[in-house]
Amino acid sequence: MTILLTGGAGFIGTHLTERLLAQGDTVHIIDNFNDLYDPALKRQNISRHADSGRVHVHEGDLCDPLLLHRLFQQYTFDAVVHLAALPGVRSSFGQPNEYYRVNVLGTQHLLDMMRAHNVRRLVFSSSSSVYGETERQRNSELRNQPAPISPYAQTKQAAEQLCQQYAEEHGFAINCLRFFTVFGPLQRPDMAIYQFLRRILTHQPITIYGDGNASRDFTYVTDVAAGITKALQHWDGFQLYNIGSGTNTTVAQLVQLMEEATGNKAQLTFNTRQPGDVSHTWADLSKASQRLTYAPEVSLAEGVSHMVTWMQMMLL
């Protein structure tokens, strides 16, 4: 297949590209290399694929209709994987309009261009944050209605609704994947697991927002990449799928795993819970398992161990 991958120079996009190349696909990446974090890291990600001959990089903004038009005119795509977005729950409170422009209008531009050029298959990256505040129980696409509590989560829900509209009105086949706290090597430096591990390894204090009892479904990045490739093989109108580990771990338990993996004791400080942070996330994987044959393989402990090895190399 020939895949258009938006946001392909990022964390998930890099791992996904490696998986797509391994199965013989051709990948066209569009990325604006913004300065949310050091663009040099994204260019380093891209350089991993330089010798493949099947990765084509197009630098530019997804909200630029001329760029999209040129791409769709010049190349024929079998499907689109849409990872590009402004991420981050907390930072979205400071610039909600920009989050809407990129995450919602950018998605609409992409859908419009796909419609104009008769490309009808899309995998869209959504987020577990759309579920909002829930009890410590599994979040189900079938039972739990979205109740977002941050601008970021609201933009993801709005983009999901756009996808459903285009599927119903224009015959698109769209799989919306709700990712649950993705981590692993190449992770964005602002993410908690990256920050925690770096600070434990360098004997610096960690700030925990709340009392440490908030819990997450931490999902290793190669499992997410596998979920995306599964979604590229199964199409049935508009569908929502959870992509997670199916396990639930408190922040305190996560820190303990990190201490065991590094051999260092964490220095903990505590602060008040931040706006938009939900108490718990936990993926019900029943639908993804049955329809996509999705099955996560990497445990949190194993994933943390891989992260430690990678980060120790980064710190040399």
TrEMBL record:
Pfam family, one: Epimerase
GO molecular function, one term: lyase activity
UniProt keyword NAD present: yes
NAD keyword on record: yes
Segments forming domain NAD-dependent epimerase/dehydratase: 3-244
Alphabetized UniProt keyword annotations: Lyase, NAD
EC number: 4.-.-.-
PANTHER family the record matches: EPIMERASE-RELATED
Name of protein: Putative UDP-glucose epimerase ytcB
Taxonomic source organism: Fibrella aestuarina BUZ 2
